[in-house]
Amino acid sequence: MPTSGKPRQRRWHGRGAAVVALAVALLTSACGGGSGGATGADASPPSASERAVAAQKQLAKNSLVPLQGEPPESELPVTVDSSDGREVTVEDASRILPLNGGVAEIVFTLGLGDRVVGRDITATFEEAKDLPLVTKAHDVSAESVLSLRPTVVLADTDTGPSEAIDQIRDAGVPVVVLDPATELANVSTRTTRIAEALGVPEAGKALNSRIDKDLAAARAAVPEGSRPKVAFLYMRGSAAVYLMGGKGSGADSLIDAAGAVDAGVESGLDKPFTPLTSEALIKAQPDVILMMSKGLESVGGIDGLLDVPGIRETPAGQTRRVVTLEDGVLLSFGPRTPLVIDILVDRVHQA
Known about the structure:
The chain is an alpha/beta fold. It contains 15 helices and 13 strands. InterPro entries: ABC_Transporter_SBP, ABC_transptr_periplasmic_BD.
């Protein structure tokens, strides 16, 4: 589970990259020019259900939509602040190795996917699937990383073990460490820092503009007067892990953006995750339960979930209202997050 962290201030030196043309909305690409992408003075904006259908189609492809136009050219060297307290100078971004799936999504969406030489186990999207894997379980293999001759490595403060990161750095490879993304506000910060480290700050601005536009359109589809209570449950049945999300879980910011109320936060859970009890569930009284798809599978689907003490006593349990999203997407906080909000807006507000 992610840990919270405040993004550090960063700086870069060198000339800005050539201006990248601002991309069209991601939803339009997902719709393929269908009803969701209608334009013109008399065209109505797509409904929540239309946006959700388009978002589901795009997520089903498990593919990314890069910025339009030619890939940006890096203008280097740049010196940036790393979240491990170091200043890191990047002189060459021709062989990029992101050690985090969310970071990799941003790199690919910036248009730099052809420079990526390897992947972390959490980079599960289609464009990355054939890249060499440099992790064993969730631990980074320094030997595997160095064998790919990266010119810059992007990690986050959760990446480890620390000995492997030190070994990569000691071999002369610049390692830029980022704070984990744990809420919606982190998306733009993370995109900016990655773009600056790779010498393409204008592409970062273009991507942030696109994400902001798509998020605003998703929020505009929230039905007026609807404020359902949504509980985020993190479950791994095989490991007997049953947790409820509270303040700082990451899901709380998504639920809020979708125009709903985080049931855990409202019931007083002031930690990101708290062991699940029937008393806590009954107190929270969620109208909707939000889960990762593999988490629901691990407890035997909706029927198995209803056997968890307290679930049947909630409005969500009584109406079987459970919303799931793929594990690698729900809390990724990256370029595909607007699609997550589109789906949540539609599903959590359904009668």
